[in-house]
Design brief:
Elements (H helix, E strand, L loop, with lengths): L4 H8 L8 H24 L1 H20 L4 H29 L3 H32 L4 H4 L1 H15 L14 H19 L1 H4 L4 H23 L13 H31 L4 H7 L1 H22 L1 H19 L8 H29 L6 H32 L6 H30 L4 H6 L15
Length: 456
């Protein structure tokens, strides 16, 4: 999408101020509807919600590919976000139910994690090739054959679960509150660059995005059929995994954005060369999450693999933080990014395994939606904060070369990202140690060690 933005701007007549909404029109409904979609998966059946989401996403992709003005494209992007939320929210819950055996589940979560992490790298290359060889319309139209194949596969292999049924109820007022809260929160974040942190716009919408979650929490404590039962947070493992996820994703989303800027603006790589430069991190994630991480999780347990992955990610960011303005890709960027790919390939499947382990069977869709919501909101927040910190640091420097000023901003952002990963490591060590969650919530079997830890 990002690679195609200049072509979309020129073709449809977007102004510089509203071009960002081609991205934001997807991000806001995607982040805002994940929780509701996860709950609907529990009620109506996860396969039904998954297929319905794919259908909406596919039709919206067709509309986006045929868009003839900015308004049609933004409407199509909004529908894409809604369909994407429905499919994504229930996906993790289905993975957990389809693969109940620890070894098979570890492999499945590794594949799932790779699919998420490698998408941006693959998309940056594919988007450039499609836009250059055909037109920007094909970055949307390519979704049609892919979705048809995926839909046929889903009909064939996914369990046709019936769900709890509509009588179990859904808290629609709670859904409206949490969706509005997330939408206003994401809106505030993505508009910070235009208005500034101290502007009335940012403060006003930021305050609203804080008041609405509080109202949502009150509603959940009183509703007969709450959208997000507060009891789910009694699981120390699930709560700790979501907090760890938020800190980790905040650092990684910001890193991916800023390292691309460093390659383009400081090292002078072109768009296609930059996309290719991100391939090694995707390859590292693929190898580790698909082959190595499942075996390590089966042998040593998700908890230990998670801690090891966080240490490697933090080390990679600390290695990258003092990157030189007059350096090179092979000497300054390749090593740290591959290290972070290895760490991410270890950490993400293990983190999802730890978090979903404590979710009750009837709550897997809800827990899946909560995980995905955490990823999207934390990613947007982390990206905005790190980008603003880098820009502020760069703008404060005078009398130096542009490349040096930009690099100084990236230094600050990368060190802050390193701190976020260190905080994630601390949270994981304190809250996700095997048996701790169960002992704190009074669950039976509290003293049973992690499912994959070797018995001594």
């Amino acid at each position: 999408m990002n690679v195609a933005l200049p072509a979309i701007r020129d073709d449809l007549g977007f102004t510089p101020s509203n071009l960002s909404w081609v991205v934001n029109a997807y991000l806001i409904p995607f982040g805002g509807l994940l929780l509701l979609a996860g709950r609907l998966g529990d009620l109506a059946g996860r396969r039904r919600v998954f297929l319905a989401g794919m259908a909406v996403f596919t039709l919206a992709s067709l509309l986006a590919g045929l868009a003839w003005n900015p308004e049609i494209l933004m409407a199509a992007r909004f529908l894409q976000g809604a369909g994407g939320a429905a499919s994504t929210a229930v996906a993790l819950g289905m993975v957990v139910r389809l693969f109940p055996e620890p070894a098979e589940r570890a492999k499945a979560l590794g594949t799932f994690s790779f699919r998420q992490a490698a998408g941006s790298s693959i998309g940056s290359i594919a988007g450039g090739l499609l836009t250059q060889a055909l037109s920007w319309h094909w970055i949307f139209l390519i979704n049609l054959p892919i979705s048809l194949v995926a839909g046929a596969g889903a009909l064939r292999v996914l369990e046709n679960d019936r769900g709890l049924g509509p009588r179990a109820g859904a808290d629609w007022l709670g859904a409206a509150l949490v969706t509005a809260a997330l939408m206003f929160g994401v809106y505030t974040i993505v508009e910070v660059e235009s208005h500034g942190w101290a502007s009335a716009h940012t403060i006003g919408f930021g305050a609203l995005s804080l008041v609405l979650p509080a109202a949502f929490g009150v509603r959940q404590s009183r509703a007969r059929d709450p959208l997000l039962p507060l009891r789910i947070f009694a699981s120390r493992g699930l709560a700790g995994a979501n907090l760890t996820m938020a800190l980790l994703v905040s650092a990684m989303f910001g890193f991916q954005f800023l390292v691309v800027l460093h390659l383009r603006q400081v090292l002078g790589l072109g768009a296609q060369a930059t996309g290719l430069a991100m391939v090694p991190i995707a390859a590292a994630i693929a190898l580790v999450s698909l082959v190595i991480s499942p075996r390590l999780s089966t042998r040593f347990g998700d908890y230990r693999v998670l801690l090891a992955g966080l240490v490697v990610i933090g080390g990679g960011l600390a290695w990258l933080a003092p990157v030189r303005a007059d350096g090179g890709y092979a000497t300054d960027v390749l090593g740290p990014t591959v290290a972070m790919g290895i760490g991410f390939g270890l950490a993400m499947p293990a983190l999802m395994g730890v978090g979903m382990r404590d979710a009750a069977a009837e709550d897997t869709g809800l827990a899946s939606g909560l995980f995905n919501t955490t990823q999207q909101v934390a990613g947007a927040l982390g990206l905005s904060v790190l980008a603003v910190l880098a820009a502020t640091r760069t703008g404060s420097l005078t009398g130096v070369r542009t490349e040096e000023a930009l690099t100084a901003g990236y230094h600050l952002a990368f060190w802050v990202g390193t701190g976020l990963v260190a905080a994630a490591l601390a949270v994981a060590a304190l809250m996700l140690r095997p048996g701790v969650a169960a002992r704190r919530t009074g669950e039976p079997g509290a003293t049973v060690p992690d499912r994959a830890l070797p018995q001594l």
